[in-house]
Design brief:
The protein has about 375 residues and is an alpha/beta fold. It is built from 13 helices and 14 strands. The strands form four sheets. Strands 2-10-9-8-5-3-4 form a seven-stranded mixed sheet, with helices on both faces. Strands 11-14-13 form a three-stranded antiparallel sheet, covered by helices on one side. Strand 3, helix 4 and strand 4 form a beta-alpha-beta unit. Helix 1 runs antiparallel to helix 10, helix 3 crosses helix 4 and helix 12 packs across helix 13. Bound molecules: pyridoxal-5'-phosphate (PLP).
């Protein structure tokens, strides 16, 4: 079996896969009510929130779109903090809904500077909401969300967070940091197949919902909340994914979130150290913002990134991701979130060294060990 090292979908534990194969139940019956109630309570623990969490049958992007469509109106000004391709996605969604986008962008590989966000908010007082990516999967950079949230709250704006590749892997205490809408999905840190997305909605976001005039139907927050109160979802949910999620959430809370965060910190450091030992450089130059869920490695000069990815897959059974947008062919990305062991990373790094050598790259003479 391949060593799947893309930053989502991530490998699933055997118990999760077994649960996903369970027989169907009535999604308007008592068993589903127990299931969704239990899952909701556990999600609140993982999000560290008392807010409602809506469980949507969609991918992460669906949750991002829902976050904007349910809290804003066409013509509203939205400040989008962008440090990569997923930051750009918020821009595209806001534009599709006819919102006025104020973009604060940073070079790929860098984290957002909260001070720049503060300045932009001062310069554009009409802004109603700030959209920010917690962990930018396209560059392997984690923003200082706590500092950005402080700036957004000082300015008294709505804070919308894409936590799709961070929640459940790196700390994100939703209530303590004052995040109004936080979106994530099943197929990354949660170790479950794709199909469900989770969005937490603060009382302030519910206030915004009341006046938000963007069109919405399938992903309407109030419909999901009112059905949840009956132990249901408005439309047929991805029941199989609920089964898997039930198992993985139990597993995560048994492990303890602190231990899971520490595991990701270790795995992230191991990956970065290993890449540097091969003489490679990371897109995230500043170690303080290097992501513990995904590492973007620059493809050395003279080597074709596409060929490197193909060789890793065909010869070594290691599946990594390439670069997106302007980074296509220039980087490879190694996912290390969710169900991942140190051996998986060791194997990946070993294969990377061998594949690079086959492509004519010269490994550093002395491989530092630490
Ligand atoms: C994966 C990812 C998305 C997109 O999620 P989909 O489930 O593919 O729609 C959005 N943002 C970030 C940060 C991601 O890692």
């Amino acid at each position: 079996m391949a060593n799947l090292r893309v930053p989502g979908p991530t490998p699933c534990p055997a118990d999760v896969l077994a649960a996903v194969g369970g027989q169907m139940i009535n999604h308007r019956g008592p068993e589903f009510k127990d299931l969704i109630t239990r899952v909701h309570q556990r999600l609140q623990q993982v999000f560290e929130t008392k807010n409602d969490i809506l469980i949507l049958t969609t991918s992460g992007t669906g949750a991002m779109e829902a976050a904007l469509a349910n809290t804003l109106s066409p013509g509203d000004a939205v400040l989008c903090v962008s440090i990569g391709e997923f930051g750009e996605r918020f821009v595209q969604i806001a534009q599709a809904y006819g919102m006025e986008v104020v973009k604060v962008a940073f070079p790929y590989g860098q984290a957002a500077d909260p001070e720049e966000v503060r300045k932009a908010l001062r310069a554009h007082p009409q802004v109603k909401a700030v959209c920010v990516t917690h962990n930018e999967t396209s560059t392997g950079v984690t923003n200082d969300l706590q500092a950005i949230a402080r700036v957004v709250k000082e300015a008294d704006k709505l804070l919308i967070v894409d936590a799709i590749s961070s929640l459940g892997c790196i700390p994100l205490p939703v209530d303590a940091w004052g995040c109004d809408v936080v979106a994530t999905a099943s197929q990354k840190g949660f170790m479950v197949p794709p199909g469900l997305a989770f969005v937490s909605v603060s009382p302030r976001a519910w206030e915004a919902y009341k006046t938000a005039k963007s069109p919405r139907f399938y992903l309407d927050f109030a419909k999901h909340k009112s059905y949840y109160e009956r132990g249901q979802t408005p439309w047929t949910p991805a029941i199989s994914i609920f089964y898997g999620l039930d198992v993985s959430l139990r597993f995560m809370l048994q492990q303890g979130m602190e231990n899971i965060f520490a595991h990701h910190a270790r795995i992230g450091a191991l990956t970065r150290r290993g890449a540097r030992a091969l003489g490679l450089s990371l897109l995230a130059a500043d170690e303080r913002y290097a992501s513990n869920t995904v590492t973007a490695i620059r493809v050395p000069e003279g080597i074709d990134g596409q060929r490197l990815g193909a060789l890793l897959r065909e010869r070594f059974g290691v599946v990594v991701a390439g670069g997106q947008g302007p980074l296509a062919g220039k980087i490879i990305r190694i996912g290390h979130m969710g169900y991942v062991r140190e051996e998986d990373i060791q194997e990946t790094l070993e294969a990377l060294g061998k594949a690079l050598t086959l492509l004519g790259y010269r490994l550093p003479a002395k491989i530092p060990t630490s």
